[in-house]
Specification:
Length: about 425
């Protein structure tokens, strides 16, 4: 009996057929995968458009998150990332997969008020029950499916060299549900700004009205256990803990450690049409929440000597609105993932980040990162040299083993192969 092919062993046609069946994709969905974003669409999305740039999109496999299998589309130009995530997910699967949570989609909007004549009285007025509910009612009149829930006030002094003095920041919290919510929050902030300026007293001035990308009320968490025997044994577990020690203690390492995590998270963000700049900015601020930039993951040894990992970060993501509604590929990516709401997307992204981190630090703590990288790089070089089908494997293996991963050497190997 023929054994079932693994996803990476399939041809593109077979992969699409597999996805069609597994994720119940329509012919239209398959067309969206096959055809890049049109210039017409691009020209409507941004100004002065001249075209689009393509980035490969692939599928990470083996993920089980909260008991559910998920195929994860990732858009990324870097080799190894998808293979690494899939491998780590396969290891986690053996101990029950990833356990994740992401609560309500609470976003924060900020209204900056300066030159407030009497901050104590201004704060009291804004937070007064009646005024506060009026403000929330105005915000909610703009909300459609987003609901404004609360208003708070923070006071601060300008600490920049310009010393602009005292400022009040009124913060609006709203549940943006399945949307990322930037537009809704910005609209709400602008709508309540005039009343806030009035309540803050004669002479006060509203300057900024904008959401905060530091989405600390929208955290996603994920954990998993990786059995020691599947990651190289007790010594590797110990070396991973040393790797984590450096990422926790040293900013130079923490940035690279977190870059690896974001390899996974950004790739899912890009594939599903998220605002990855917002996610990046929020993630790195969160990594510095105690005043020092640290690892976004935590690693420790379990009583059995296995490796337990956890990640926690703000993930403001949406499955409705924004680019998701304009780019057909993003919609198909969400369908492949099978996420039904923004929380499920956030949990999936957190799991991808954790898997990516395990894969990177496991490789770094054992054989080093270049071995796997070079093997995959060699494949790209073989393809660039003109190798097709089985030739790719033969040429790449040869040039990688020779340590001569160049197009010219790949061409020589290829031509020798063709003469045989
Ligand atoms: C490369 O894109 C990512 C890594 O540098 C991450 C890390 O060092 O942990 C391998």
């Amino acid at each position: 009996m023929a054994t079932k092919k693994k996803f990476y062993e399939m041809s593109r046609k077979e992969r699409l057929a597999y996805l069609k069946n597994k994720a119940k994709l329509s012919d239209g969905d398959i067309d969206a995968i096959l055809s890049p974003l049109s210039f017409g669409a691009a020209n409507q999305m941004i100004e002065n458009a001249i075209g689009t740039i393509s980035i490969p999109i692939g599928i990470a496999t083996n993920f089980v998150i909260n008991g559910q299998e998920r195929l994860i589309p990732m858009a990324i130009e870097e080799p190894s990332v998808i293979a690494a995530a899939s491998k780590a997910a396969g290891i986690a699967k053996k101990t029950g997969g990833f356990t994740a949570e992401a609560k309500r989609s609470l976003m924060i909007g900020q209204i900056q008020v300066v030159s407030v004549p009497d901050p104590v009285s201004a704060k009291r007025k804004i937070l007064d029950g009646r005024n506060k509910s009026d403000l929330l009612a105005v915000a909610n009149s703009k909300g459609r499916s987003v609901s404004a829930l609360d208003i708070s006030v923070r006071e601060m002094q300008d600490s920049s060299p310009n010393k602009m003095g005292h400022m009040m920041v009124v913060e609006l919290v709203a549940d943006t549900k399945d949307a990322m919510g930037a537009n809704a929050i910005n609209t709400m902030c602008e709508a309540i700004a005039p009343k806030i300026q009035e309540l803050a007293g004669e002479g006060s001035n509203v300057v900024l009205k904008i959401l905060s990308n530091y989405a600390t009320r929208r955290l996603a968490r994920c954990k998993a256990v990786f059995a020691k025997d599947d990651i190289g044994g007790g010594e590797v577990v110990k070396r991973i803990l040393y790797a984590y020690a450096l990422a926790y203690s040293d900013t130079y390492r923490a940035v690279t450690h977190n870059k690896g995590i974001m390899n996974g998270i950004d790739a899912v963000a890009l594939a599903t049409g998220q605002d990855f700049r917002a996610i990046e900015a929020g993630a790195h601020a969160y990594a510095s929440r105690d005043g020092t930039y640290r690892s976004l993951t935590r690693w420790q040894m379990t009583e059995d000597g296995d490796l337990a990992g956890e990640i926690e970060l703000p993930l403001a993501v949406g499955i409705v609105g924004g680019i998701v509604s304009v780019n057909p590929m993003a919609k198909v990516a969400l369908k492949i993932m099978g996420v039904k709401n923004a929380s499920e997307l956030a949990m999936t992204m957190a799991a991808t980040g954790l898997a990516q981190n395990l894969a990177a630090i496991r490789a770094l703590a054992s054989e080093g990162i270049q071995k796997g990288h070079m093997a995959l790089h060699a494949r790209n070089i073989a393809v660039m040299a003109g190798a097709k089908g089985k030739q790719v494997e033969l040429v790449s293996r040869r040039i990688a083993s020779e340590g001569a991963v160049t197009v010219s050497r790949a061409k020589e190997v290829l031509s020798a192969l063709r003469k045989k």
